[in-house]
Every structure is written in C-alpha cells, then in structure tokens.
C-alpha cells in the first residue's frame, strides 16, 4: 500500500502564512483514502523532515508561496531534485530547507508536490497577525480540492472518482 502525506506548513501568528495549516484543517475534517495521511506541521520543519524519512511514498506540502502574482493565486509546484545536502537551521525551515535537511540525513525526498498560495500579507515582524486575508481564505477550499486531486493522481484507480471526494 502506497502512503501519501498531505502536510500543512505555516505560522498561524503570521497572517497568510497560516494558509497551509488551514488547508490541512479542512482536509483533516474529510474522509481520506486508505494510505492518505493529513498532518499540520505548522512551523515544525524538523518534524516534517523526520516524517518524510518515515516511509511515505509521496507528499503534498501546503504552504504560502510568494511568486509575485495576485494574492490568493494557487500554484502546484513540482520541486526539482535536491542537489546538495547542507546543514540548515532546524528552527527556520522552509520547504526547500526541509528537503535539503532530508538529504543531509541520507534520505531522498519522495514523490513531491507543493500547493502554494500567494499571500496578501504576513503581518509585521514585531506584532504578527491572526487570520487569513480574504483572497487567501477564498483559495483554501480550492487548494483542498487540488490536494485531493493530487492524491487521486498519486494513488491511482483505487480512489473514488466522485467529484470532491477521496474515500
């Protein structure tokens, strides 16, 4: 049985950076196919790196991702191979750094996709911010649907094809 991790990433105290956490919350409230696991890692990049070493065959990372488009724009990113394993600060791990940390542990990232959302605001450094902006909140349901579609793609024909369901 193949195992797929749907991993929320973000900081709930930094406005739209909580996007991945919110998508993971939505997905966790829905039935998932056998072999699909949903977990909100928040800011715990080291824990995510360890999880990627625990025998998952694939992962979908859910995260706020700035790429210069309008807020709420969703991206599906297929990261390239990790070229180097380097020491990284385990307290400041972006998805890119998590993948390099996995490589430094001698692991190889599994099948991997990132569903990213263009943030509108992350709050300021000193005060932070609670809650998602309107355009990012509006993208959460579509991002959850995209994650379910990627799960179907990854797991193949064993997934129920009814729209909006992963069983």
**Secondary structure: helix percent:** 25-40%
State the fourth-level CATH superfamily.
Answer: HybD-like
Question: Number of helical runs?
Answer: 4
Strand order of the largest sheet: 2-1-3-5-4
Q: Summarize the helix and strand pattern as letters.
A: EHEHEEHEH
Rounded to the nearest angstrom, the distance between the terminal CA atoms is 15 Å
How many runs of DSSP E, i.e. beta strands? 5
Largest sheet: 5 strands, mixed
Taking all Cα atoms into account, the compactness measure Rg is 15 Å
Strand share of the residues? 15-25%
CATH topology: Rossmann fold
CATH hierarchy, class: Alpha Beta
* Number of structural units classed as domains: 1
In terms of per-residue confidence, which ranges show pLDDT below 50 for 5 or more consecutive residues?
161-167
Q: Quaternary status of these chains?
A: single chain
Compute the average pLDDT: 83
Q: What's the shape?
A: globular
Given helix and strand content, the structural type is alpha/beta
CATH architecture: 3-Layer(aba) Sandwich
Give the SSE layout.
Blueprint: E1 4-9, H1 19-28, E2 36-42, H2 45-52, E3 58-64, E4 74-77, H3 95-104, E5 111-117, H4 134-155
Parallel strand pairs: 1-2, 1-3, 3-5
Antiparallel strand pairs: 4-5
Helix pairs in contact: 1-4, 2-3
């Amino acid at each position: 049985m193949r195992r797929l991790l749907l991993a929320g990433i973000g900081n709930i105290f930094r406005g739209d950076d909580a996007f991945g956490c919110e998508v993971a919350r939505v997905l966790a409230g829905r039935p998932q196919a056998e072999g699909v696991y949903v977990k909100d890692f928040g800011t715990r990049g080291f824990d995510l790196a360890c999880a990627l070493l625990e025998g998952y065959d694939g992962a979908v990372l859910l995260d706020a991702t700035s790429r210069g488009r309008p807020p709420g724009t969703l991206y599906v990113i297929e990261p390239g191979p990790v070229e180097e394993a380097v020491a990284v600060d385990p307290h400041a791990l972006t998805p890119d750094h998590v993948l390099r940390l996995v490589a430094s542990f001698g692991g190889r990232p599994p099948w991997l996709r990132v569903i990213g959302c263009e943030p509108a605001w992350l709050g300021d450094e000193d005060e932070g911010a609670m809650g998602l902006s309107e355009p990012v909140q509006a993208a959460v349901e579509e991002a959850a649907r995209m994650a379910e579609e990627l799960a179907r793609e990854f797991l193949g024909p064993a997934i129920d094809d009814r729209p909006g369901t992963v069983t």
